[in-house]
Structures are given as C-alpha cells and as structure tokens.
Amino acid sequence: MILDLGIINLKTEKMEYYLISMKHTQKRHEFITLWNSNERGYTYNVGDAGIYDESKASSIDSEYDSIKIPTEIIQRLFIVTSDHHERVPNCKAVWNELGLMMNNRSLRRK
C-alpha cells in the first residue's frame, strides 16, 4: 500500500523474508537450502519455502544457523530447473549477492 501525502509517497508494505539454512547448505550442494513453510523442515524449492514476516524471520535468524533474505532478492536469484522447480544456485556469485561465504562445510556470513 502506498500513502500519497501530496509531496511524499510513503510505502507501508511489510517486509517478507525467506530463510536460508546456512548449516544445511553445504559446498557440495547444487542449490541453497531454504526453510519450509511453518518451520517444517527444509527445501531447495522456492515455491515450497516459507515466507516469514519481520518478527518471525528475525527470531529464527538470531536463534538458528540461518539468515533472513528479503523475498524480492530470492525472487531475483532463482533459476528454473529442467524439472520445472525454482531454485537458488549454490555458487559464489549468489553468495556474494547475499553477503555470504562458504567455508569448508557450510555457508557463513561475511
């Protein structure tokens, strides 16, 4: 929703996030691991991943080895695979875009 106050337009949309599991995304994986909806496991498929509000995403981000990423960023980064799934490639270009790096085992914040 946008409020038009004459001179200034204020955006009042609430931010929504996907959650990346840094612990469950390993170097050998082809795709980034996302949290499923309702905190029920993990998925590579963007369409199956949960979309979390600011409060829930921040809570999970600080409590678990995960990072919240705005939905519009994930929507920009996914590819459509040959089996018609939307997935985020697990590669250096994506890590850089997300402010992450890969150590010997899993993703980490830079």
| Morphology | globular
Strand content: 25-35%
How many strands appear in the DSSP assignment?
Answer: 11
Please indicate the count of domains: 1
Rounded to the nearest angstrom, the distance between the terminal CA atoms is 34 Å
Poorly predicted ranges: none
Q: Return the string of H and E elements.
A: EEEEEEHEHEEHEE
Q: Describe the biggest sheet?
A: 3 strands, antiparallel
Mean pLDDT: 88
What strand line-up does the widest sheet have? 6-3-7
Supply the number of helical segments. Answer: 3
Radius of gyration: 15 Å
Structural class, from helix and strand content? alpha+beta
Helical content band:
10-25%
Please outline what is shown here:
The chain has helices at 54-63, 71-77, 92-98; strands at 2-4, 9-11, 16-21, 34-35, 42-43, 52-53, 66-70, 79-80, 86-87, 100-102, 107-109. With 110 residues, the protein is of the alpha+beta class. The chain has one domain (13-109).
Spell out the blueprint of helices and strands.
Blueprint: E1 2-4, E2 9-11, E3 16-21, E4 34-35, E5 42-43, E6 52-53, H1 54-63, E7 66-70, H2 71-77, E8 79-80, E9 86-87, H3 92-98, E10 100-102, E11 107-109
Antiparallel strand pairs: 1-2, 3-6, 3-7, 4-5, 8-9, 10-11
What does this structure look like?
- The strands form five sheets. This protein has a three-stranded antiparallel beta sheet with strand order 6-3-7. The chain has a two-stranded antiparallel ribbon with strand order 1-2. Strands 4-5 form a two-stranded antiparallel sheet.
- The chain has three helices and eleven strands, in the order ββββββαβαββαββ.
- The protein starts with a strand and ends with a strand.
- Strand 10 and strand 11 (107-109) form a beta hairpin.
- By secondary structure, the protein is of the alpha+beta class.
- The chain has one domain (13-109).
- It is globular, with a radius of gyration of 15 Å.
